[in-house]
């Protein structure tokens, strides 16, 4: 299993011009299709008068969901070149939108493919990629008497305590590298009072048992 995936750090923009047409490009880090829809809705409202609003995105690591959309341009002349740029940089959890204002001169399919590819590339080049570690979150409940032993496991596997709740027992949420999660879980379960529950609220996490 790989330890990390590559995604975008922030929102970035680019612009490309060809024969009077303007291609405004935007690159976004996203985690879910809800994030994608939010950005697309914003673009639709802001650039309501544009001729075309084409896009592509990839979600999941490894890639599990992707889509490209031509928005009225000839088939595969817009969305696919945008998608190709995202893939060429090894990115996931990334959305690129290219807005076209028609300049009066047709570019042909080849010209369109080059324009959308170039515009997408410019937005991506204006960004910075970041490496995100695959992590798994687990809820650990245990008796106070076993705190020292739990802490030893946390230290051994460089786990992070993301949440602590104290009632009659200790109730903690821990994050660790996904590839080490099964071994860390086995070690924790050797402690008599420990009860484990894998958490799936983090869309970036991978289930080490999958």
From TrEMBL:
Residues 19-124 form the Impact N-terminal domain. GO terms for cellular component: cytoplasm. Coiled coil: none annotated. It comes from the Bacteria. One of its GO terms (biological process) is regulation of translational initiation. Gene3D superfamilies: Impact, N-terminal domain. Belongs to the IMPACT family. PANTHER family: IMPACT FAMILY MEMBER YIGZ, IMPACT-RELATED. This is Impact N-terminal domain-containing protein. The lineage of its organism: Bacteria, Pseudomonadati, Bacteroidota, Cytophagia, Cytophagales.
């Amino acid at each position: 299993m790989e330890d990390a995936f590559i995604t975008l750090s922030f929102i970035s923009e680019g612009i490309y011009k060809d024969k009077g047409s303007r291609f405004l490009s935007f690159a976004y880090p996203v985690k879910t299709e809800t994030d994608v829809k939010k950005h697309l809705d914003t673009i639709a409202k802001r650039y309501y008068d544009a001729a075309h609003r084409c896009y592509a995105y990839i979600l999941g690591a490894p890639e599990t969901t992707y889509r490209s959309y031509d928005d009225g341009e000839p088939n595969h002349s817009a969305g696919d070149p945008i998608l190709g740029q995202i893939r060429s940089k090894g990115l996931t959890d990334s959305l690129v939108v290219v807005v076209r204002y028609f300049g009066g001169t047709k570019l042909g399919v080849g010209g369109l493919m080059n324009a959308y590819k170039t515009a997408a590339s410019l937005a991506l080049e204006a960004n910075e990629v970041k490496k995100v570690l695959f992590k798994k979150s687990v809820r650990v409940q245990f008796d106070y008497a076993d705190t020292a032993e739990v802490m030893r496991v946390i230290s051994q596997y460089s786990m992070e305590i993301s949440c602590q709740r104290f009632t009659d027992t200790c109730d903690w949420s821990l994050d660790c590298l996904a590839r080490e999660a099964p071994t860390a879980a086995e070690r924790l379960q050797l402690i008599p009072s420990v009860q484990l529950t894998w958490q799936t609220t983090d869309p970036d996490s991978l289930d080490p048992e999958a």
